[in-house]
Amino acid sequence: MNQPDDMMLFEVDDFLAFADQVAEEPEPPAQELDCGGIKNKKQVFRSSSSSTKNTLAKVGFITKSEIELLDDGYRWRKYGKKKVKSSPNPRNYYRCSSIGCNVKKRVERHQDDSSFVITTYEGVHNHHAPQPAAVQHQARHLPNSDG
DNA sequence: CGAATTTGACCGGCGC
DNA sequence: GCGCCGGTCAAATTCG
């Protein structure tokens, strides 16, 4: 345990609160977010901050899902895939498709429990969610109101 | 046709 | 200076 001061620790519990916000869908991830077992592992992530010159906010989250592309309300475009040593699984790189928004998202599979997905957000959206997950879900069901 | 996706190649920072 | 690892772009392909 020797994390530098310029590093913040985010507990999975924090994610629960975060998920609660995006849990606008009829099927809240809370059901799949069986963090109960994760917490036992004391899974925590670090976020680079403090550094005034670095305004980039990095936040790591762990999610229990079979899919990596979790619709958190933003449009993401995959721009790269790389296999890292840290994990035998490949890592995916996503970027906010929005204009003027250079937020990046990293997605990686767990090495031991492939049932879990590690999502790391880098930066902060300078615009509101263009397409709320909840709306998208409905838009798929509801026909064109235009007629 | 076009945007998003797919996948390889290229480049930069660190260690030796 | 080179090799390794990680991060990003870019061409071809795919899907709507």
TrEMBL record:
UniProt-listed Pfam families: WRKY
Kindly report the protein's main subcellular placement as a broad class. nucleus
Q: PROSITE patterns from the xrefs?
A: WRKY
Q: Where is this region: Disordered?
A: 124-147
Coiled-coil intervals, chain numbering: none
Matching entries from Gene3D superfamilies are given as: WRKY domain (2.20.25.80)
Annotated keywords: DNA-binding, Nucleus, Transcription, Transcription regulation
Specify the superkingdom: Eukaryota
One Gene Ontology cellular component term attached to this UniProt record is: nucleus
Q: Which InterPro entries match?
A: WRKY_dom, WRKY_dom_sf, WRKY_plant
Q: Which residues form the WRKY domain?
A: 65-130
Where is this gene product found? Answer: Nucleus
Tell me if DNA-binding is a UniProt keyword of this record: yes
Q: Which GO molecular function annotations are given, in alphabetical order?
A: DNA-binding transcription factor activity; sequence-specific DNA binding
- Is Transcription a UniProt keyword of this protein? yes
Record-given protein name: WRKY domain-containing protein
